[in-house]
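Predict the assembly for these two chains.
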Amino acid sequence: MFDTALTTADLIFLAKGAGMTILVTAISVAIGTALGIAFGVIRVQFGAALTAPLTFVLDIFRSVPLLIQLVLANAFLGMVLKLQLSGFFVACMVLSLYTSAYCAEIVRGGIDAVPATTRRAARSLGVSWGQDMRYIVLPLATRVALPSWIGLALGVMKDSALVYVVQVTELLKSTQILITRLQEPLFLLMIGGAFYFLISFPLARFGGYLEKRWSND
Amino acid sequence: MFGYTFQWNQALARLPKMLDGAVVTMEVAVLSMLIGIAFAILLTLLRLSGSRPLRAIATGWVEIARNTPALFQIYMAHFGVASFGIHFSPFISLLIGITFNNAGYLAENFRGALKAIPDTQTRAGRSLGMSQLQAFRYIILPQMLRISFLPMTNQMVWAVLMTSLGVTVGMNSDLYGVTQDLNALTFRTFELFAIAGVIFYIITKAITLSARLIAARLFRY
């Protein structure tokens, strides 16, 4: 049972896949969060009616399977616009927008959790909109939003397993390639799964801890 | 304008087949949800139980379901168990994978809901002569399901979206699988997947909308 044909080269191959998973996740979460904060602030600032088109577009990213988003973006950019883009670029682009759609919801929830009276009190003391956002809303909203944001980042890491569909060889795809060659599915899948688990579990616990700690007062 | 001729007719002619696929997608999603809720209630009971090993099993299930990709769970249900000589059809593998995932997430939701129900209610039930299980069944469970109705709706939407992963284990009767096969046949990738996307969008909107209507009717007071 403990015999395996897995070689060091295969392990390096898996590590490269893991590196790709982390790289795609890091880029997408970074861009997606920046966009998400912008979208969230815009939605709160301009009201539901004015931003209905934005809400609709962002809602699409949350209502259509990521696999279809990736295939569609790839087909549209490659076949319709005839752009020569790497799968990596398409994967990061789609995942960033996907992240921003969820992040905008989290940001909106965070800003809404800041009592309007607190903000009005600040404004009536002569604080500008920018200062209000920076010194009043940001610290208070972060307490509400950060635990959910950690959950979102981990969710994006798990969802990044789907970018194989645009020819990006991330961890699960590398595992799949090795399974085809070595025919040891259970062992290899356990390695792949353990990697996701070891990153996700501690961070998820940390998010839960922050949530508990910050919700008391 | 794009140097690409959209041929929507070719894709739209395949719409009936895709709608058949949508029905299979809904079947998988609904089944995985119903079985998932049953398992989630079981997991919740196990996590409340006094037995350490039982609690460990339940916690392990929940944490693995929540901390690994759904795609990994479906692979495990298909290729992983094949190591033990068990071979499931793609439909069953997909169903097991999504159900496992649903149960894990729902159990966590249920745990959150339980925190909102005071312990004193169980004790009140017990002092009225109910057994531990009766108190859970008649007092705690209805409130728990009610509090987690919204998370359950979200999980249902997730279940629908997750069915698209079945294609990785060879499923070709669900909406994504059907679209993939049609794509191999006609090579109208953009048109076909755009239509599939619209169908998915309509399904998820129908779920959230009907859930809202059901909630308005069930939770009037």
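The first helix of chain A runs from residue 8 to 50. Helices of chain A lie at 8-50, 52-63, 66-80, 87-112, 116-124, 129-159, 171-182, 185-215.
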